[in-house]
Please model this.
Amino acid sequence: MLSPGYEEIVKAPKALLHDHLDGGLRPATVIELAAEVGHELPATDATRLGQWFIEAADSGSLERYLETFAHTVAVMQTESALHRVAYECALDLAADGVVYAEVRFAPEQHLDRDLTLHRVVGAVLAGFREGCAAAADAGTPIRIGTLLTAMRHQARSMEIAELAVLHRDEGVVGFDIAGAEAGYPPTRHLDAFEYLQRENFHFTIHAGEAFGLPSIWQAIQWCGADRLGHGVRIVDDISGNGQLGRLAAYVRDKRIPLELCPSSNVQTGAAASIAEHPIGLLRDLRFRVTVNTDNRLMSGTSMSREMALLVEAFGYGWSELQWFTVNAMKSAFIPFDERLVLINEVIKPAYSKLLA
Model:
């Protein structure tokens, strides 16, 4: 059987759990929105600007990588801009064959022009609703769940957690913390995580990307994370012969999903290359591995491109791509019966034809 080609992968249904709204803007949109608010950009040609984001993020440092967001966040400070970015996000993901996505953003980063947290969330949710409707009309249906993110170096996590729960029936399906890991352990936000657990609400935590096993251990054992945002450094607890340490064994035994982002992990120095990415080992050892984009603009990527890179690096076929997709759908923060519908009525029938 021939390896899956990129164009074929685009048409196959995919599920995405780790995608940042402010990391997925179209370069042309950044330019137009920057002109509206008078924000200076490093380039004003869409192609050149897109390349600048990739090159600036390709430093091997998470801190340097995060600096690129100053430009995207700066142009997302009005309701109309937030609505547009969310709308276009839905269309772009749907056009790439994504049938389910969880897109996250930090409401506290969009208050520079006097918006309230509630208006920020409302604008994004409205953009997603209209974008999903337009995608369905175009014959590429997609469902999007929203995660509200708190910045780990700030002190608003409880406020954002309460905001997420307040909007849980309007499209917000989970909570997250993000930002530089070193020096800002997840336990600083323990009150927010305890509140979310009392409210029976789902949350993931960025952990095990730039910082190692202690970050993962705290996210799981202290904070109770449902999933690990990245979690790639769990490989540090696996010996050369595949022997699992106690933390790695716990993560695998409990089927805690790993939101791996291959291209992004290479950019931030969490992996040396796609071919050397721990996703190959973690998949072989049957961890709950999922494939994600992280920041499509900064990585110049898409779900189809991430899948195609793995096909090239590891020789994967349709069965592995289906496995990654079903893993993601099993790990989604929407109700169980709704996950099953997408798995059994959308994903598996499509891959059955590809595997035939």
